[in-house]
Amino acid sequence: MATAVMTSLDTKSRSASRGMSDIRIRNLFIIPTILFLIVFNIFPLIYSLGYSFTDFRASSNAPANFVGLQNYRALLNDPFIWLNFAITAKYVIISVTGQVIVGFGTAMLLNRDIPLKGLLTTLLLLPMMLSMAVVGLFWKLLYDPSFGIINYTFGLGSFEWLSNPDMALYAVAITDIWMWSPFVMLLSLAGLSAVPKHLYEAAAIDRAGPFYTFFRITLPLVAPILMIAIIFRTMEAFKTFDLAYILTSQPTTEVISIRLYKMAFQEWQTGRSCALAYIVLIMVLAITNIYVKYLNKVKER
Amino acid sequence: MRKTMTGLLAGIGLMWACGSSAQAQELTIFWAEWDPANYLQELANEYEAQTGVKVTVETTPWADFQTKAFTEFNAKGSAYDMVVGDSQWIGAASEAGHYVDLTDFFNKHKLNEVMAPATVKYYAEYPSNSKKYWSIPAEGDAVGWSYRKDWFEDPKEMEAFKAKYGYDLAPPKTWAEMRDIAEFFHRPGEKRYGIAIYTDNSYDGLVMGVENAMFSYGGELGDYQSYKVDGIINSEKNVKALEMYRELYGFTPPGWAKTFFVENNQAITENLAAMSMNYFAFFPALVNEASNPNAKVTGFFANPAGPGGEQFAALGGQGISVISYSDNQEEAMKFLEWFIKDETQKRWAELGGYTASAKVLESPEFQNATPYNKAFYETMFKVKDFWATPEYAELLIQMNQRIYPFVTAGQGTAKEALDSLAADWKATFDKYGRNK
């Protein structure tokens, strides 16, 4: 089955002259990757599942005791953990919605013949190429109430973006939107340019309005690729750590990965943090699955 | 081919051999990134000049210090031979066997007489009163205050203050006076604010700040021997102290919600606040005109007393410990023998390090060397510290979780925050079977 889809080796190639078969070359490429995955992903995954049922602490020499579901029970009964999840959900919704609106909007604007389109697109992609930590440090300066350029530009006086508990999460989300909208834009642009021109021409002949054209032609045809962008961004936003960690230390911005980090590497509650990591993993898997189901549905249409 | 391989192997072997023999003449000390670490490097350079043993002080930012050190310990890594570790690590590091037991060394050199008592109690001994020692007090430190002398001594301000509060404007003797002065100088319209306090909840900044109030109000965090917390951490005194801290937060500059030593020194250098809380370790930067344009008009005072007249301060500072996984333990012990000598301690103080040596601290030379050394000397005999149990990090995070929303956003009441904290701490101690 696997060999059937592979193109056969060119008989005149160097590999063929060395006597390498198709299967051998395939193995040569795949086995190291599989081994790498097993050693660095699968093995720790299973190992940490084991730890999640123990009271193991990496900081002590005490042996790990089996505690059954105690870690899971304690975590799911901890009001602070639920608060962390609620904050994460709020953050994901704000940040992904913002990115889709800004990213898709920019893509619509760029999807026409304008001068310097290539240069413009490249420049718009710059935020995405910066390191998260650097973006966090820069935006911390931009948001500063005393000398930050944002308050200065918008005449907000000494508005406290990061130390106001109600505003801090939005401030982090705005930074994330600034950074990752270009990613949504790039994928949307690819989707938009693939929409056949003749559909628009037919719509124009039928005197369809711009809204009708958008909702009946553009959006349905771009939807699958937009969904992929949303899946990626949701997964990333759910796992977000760097931006929120660097920008502010408000309890209202303590997303689940920050709590997980503190539990694992400051408190050294290794067993319990493994359990929390598993809870997060299951949640991300569930959300992604819903999206993928929806994506398949969209594709069928 | 075979010949080249043999040659290569021999070469590698030779390099390895040289490498390991050279290593014995090198020691690495791990510490956080701050001025005292640079002073220690200077001191270590003098050790190298005397003995030929190269000592490198490796540093990392404070926020990562704990994580990085314990990651290395847990991996049983030999990258560092010694660590100048935080006082509250001592329980975690000694119980897990990361630190070498220094009790014999301590007794041989009678260090509990040589070093100031508080430093022995909090930097070196674990468990409390066990006479087992795990580190040599290296950098004594506590929280003190700096203030703007020019603002305090301005005749117009003095007159206005006296008219408003009925007593003279001077460095505060009590927390109540400090509150009045903070309120008096808090003028957001002029971009001048009353006071700078610690609020950073990512490690021990905020907790240290609040401790200053609690300890001076006569409060305690708990009983460090029986692990009893209910009725102690949420005592009436602590509730009052926490309310006072919250009140002071109202007189801080804008955006003062994630601040620690850097921001609090900036409050003085950037003309933001009249008074600023900070560790003594950061005061050298304030008397240096290169780093503080207001150096000439910056004064210092010790943590004020509470309403009952009690006066304590939160302990900072660190002891130096030998790491069990080091390959150079013997060399490290030799360094420590040199480090505790009187003349070395004197030199350490001259370089800017805060010695814990009682003899040096008591000398007039030391006390008159800087405007704050006398306050430091007085403070070091009335300090208290956070829990040093292995689960201190959990206790710290729980305290941050409970008090931060109250201090910075006024959520709930001080009583509610501390009652919840007492329950959290009790549950944690139950979990580890401490209060049996």
UniProtKB/TrEMBL annotation, chain A:
Keywords: Membrane, Sugar transport, Transmembrane, Transmembrane helix, Transport. The keyword Cell inner membrane does not apply. GO terms for cellular component: plasma membrane. SUPFAM superfamilies: MalF N-terminal region-like, MetI-like. It is a multi-pass membrane protein. Residues 85-291 form the ABC transmembrane type-1 domain. InterPro entries: MetI-like, MetI-like_sf, Sugar_ABC_transporter. Its main location: membrane. The chain crosses the membrane at residues 28-47, 81-107, 119-139, 167-192, 213-232, 275-292. One of its GO terms (biological process) is transmembrane transport. It is found in: Cell membrane. It holds the Pfam family BPD_transp_1. It comes from the Bacteria. Belongs to the binding-protein-dependent transport system permease family. This is Multiple sugar transport system permease protein. It comes from Phyllobacterium trifolii. The lineage of its organism: Bacteria, Pseudomonadati, Pseudomonadota, Alphaproteobacteria, Hyphomicrobiales.
TrEMBL record, chain B:
It is found in: Periplasm. InterPro entries: Bact_solute-bd_prot1 (IPR050490), SBP (IPR006059). Belongs to the bacterial solute-binding protein 1 family. Gene3D superfamilies: Periplasmic binding protein-like II (3.40.190.10). The keyword Transport applies. It holds the Pfam family SBP_bac_1. Its main location: periplasm. PANTHER family: ABC TRANSPORTER PERIPLASMIC-BINDING PROTEIN YCJN-RELATED, ARABINOSE-BINDING PROTEIN-RELATED. Keywords: Periplasm, Signal, Sugar transport, Transport. This is Multiple sugar transport system substrate-binding protein. Residues 1-24 form the signal peptide. GO terms for cellular component: periplasmic space.
